[in-house]
């Protein structure tokens, strides 16, 4: 049964939805001027059913590292909560941040997405974590074959993980984690970046999609 609230919702979308390409990255804004928490979702076109089994999920883990710095620690500095997951054809990153730290969160987060170089220590650390995940899923889903098979296609098994090299992942990252393959969905109060003029909006948005790392104390 259709309800009036559906029409109101779509009307709200028509009024508040903005689709822009800025610096090659597609950005979709759903502006809610009364929001005090901003939600950022980054969708990257690489999933578990593509390339070598387990590779996309492995890269998802590596995206939390850059120059021996951990993204979780950096986001914690900005008071940002984040998570990530890999599906069949996409990798998703979800972040919740304050309005005041939205620009810092986006700028730094983007610099990690566009990083394609990892140390052997970072590689081995995430490999160990993933192998433990594999064991955990096999234990939890031992009686649920259908779910287990789905998970195995995404993260792989122990042998498949051990067959993935750091060089292969860095090369695949440089191919798939390009700006043209990234789509940001931003929900919250972005009034200061949105203008009735598309050109002015794009100028205002430019600072949030560069690849520079903001250094902090």
From TrEMBL:
Pfam families hit by this protein: Peptidase_M16
Residue span, Peptidase M16 N-terminal domain: 50-139
Gene Ontology MF annotations: metal ion binding
SUPFAM superfamilies, per database record: LuxS/MPP-like metallohydrolase
The name this protein goes by in its record: Insulinase family protein
Native source organism of the sequence: Staphylococcus pseudintermedius
